[in-house]
Amino acid sequence: MIRTFSIYRLASCLCAAVALVGCSRNAEDDRNGALSLAGAEKRISEMSAGDIVVVVNGEKVTKADFDALLRVRAAIFQLQNKIDLEDTEADAVKFFETTAMPMIVPELIHHKLFEQYAKEKGIRPPPAAVASARERFAKSISRRTNEIERLSRRIGGLAGDVFARIPYVDAQDAMLRQSVTTNDLDSVSEADIARIQARIDAWDKTADRNNEESRKRLAEARAEIDAGGDFGEVAAKYSQVSPEHGKAWATYQLGELPKDEDLYKWLSKAKVGEISPPLDLEDGLAIVKLVEMGKGEAPAGVERPDTYTLVKCTAYAYQYVQHLERPALIREILKMKRSEAQKTLGTMLVGRAALEYPNGTNFFGVAEASQER
Predict the structure, then answer these.
(1) E strand spans, the chain
(2) 7-190+327-356 belongs to which CATH class?
(3) Where in the chain are all domains bearing CATH 3.10.50?
């Protein structure tokens, strides 16, 4: 469908992105720029706790640090998904760990760079800022603030210490982000709101024009079909999306489709051979032809559902930006500000960093040993 999307995504389209090496620790920050281990998983798994993963500006980060952060990320996943913390062998947890592993080394580098910069600038968050970050963190894992210490003890070891320190680190990082921007990252002015609203209006006007052009294109295709043209041949000429171009596209059962979508509403009344008006589909606007009806699979004794086999001709359509209520708009603007500050700071710190990988890989796919293991 032509879905609305947030102003945060709009800003990503309108603003030049600055690549950030590493992941944010704050749940509000995006994960853009997370780099892959690129085949280093086996080497990581072979390391012992004291082995050095990376040296960041002369400070060592070990395999024990890697394991601790991975455990913390898994524990947060468990808390958010109501999986018992002791159930570390659950399939969902193991899958999460496998998925998260490529992001751990970049995040460790990020942690160390931010920590070093905070020391350099003498930045220490005040108790009130830590308390506020603590409340946000507890809320993100659906817990009360006074449960964080108890949860850290259950996690245990270095991972438990890292978990307990998250609110302090988040408060520190917020101050670091503020230090590299001229904007107040905690407030939104009327000018900020007016600027975003103007972008929304400009984008939506462009979407209107482009979608009208798409409708004209489909109208021309339909006119050729109605004049005797073969649907498939006409679709190959006019379709802008997907390679099907009038060939068999999909077989549906009505129960698989949301009842408020265009395709459901049309199929519920369509007959074989009938061609739809322009429909709002996932990949754009399309005219669709119902070429076959049949019966799907069903258990014994259950009536088999009707199935609908379709062909289509699709033209590009543009998403509209969601018009948010004022409180939601303010939250989105704050999120954009903080994300841009995060990228600015991360880019600056990475650009001046000295990174060494003593165990023979830089975890980004390039062998680069500073010493033999």
Answers:
(1) 52-56, 59-62, 250-253, 279-281, 284-295, 306-315, 355-356
(2) mainly alpha
(3) 212-315
40 touches 361 (CB < 8 A): yes
- Residue ranges, CATH 1.10.4030, the chain: 7-190+327-356
Condensed to tens digits (0 to 9), the pLDDT of residues 335-364 reads 889 899 988 998 899 889 998 888 765 554
Q: Tell me the two tokens of residue 360.
A: 């023979």
Query: Which residues have CB under 8 Å from 65's CB, separation 6+?
Result: 53, 108, 158
What proportion of the chain, given as a percentage, has pLDDT over 90? 41
Per-residue pLDDT of 298-342, as tens digits, reads 677 767 677 788 788 888 888 788 778 888 889 889 988 989 998
Paired residues of 313 in beta bridges: 287
Instruction: Give me the amino acid identity at 15.
Output: C
Q: Please say whether the beta carbons of 166 and 25 come within 8 A.
A: yes
Q: Residue for token digits 């519920």?
A: 268
CATH for the stretch 212-315: 3.10.50
Give the list of residues 6+ apart from residue 27 with CB closer than 8 angstroms, or none: 136, 137, 140
Cα Rg of the chain, angstroms: 27
Contact by Cβ (8 Å): 76, 139: no
pTM above 0.90, yes or no: no
How far apart are the C-alpha atoms of 146 and 249, rounded to whole Å?
55
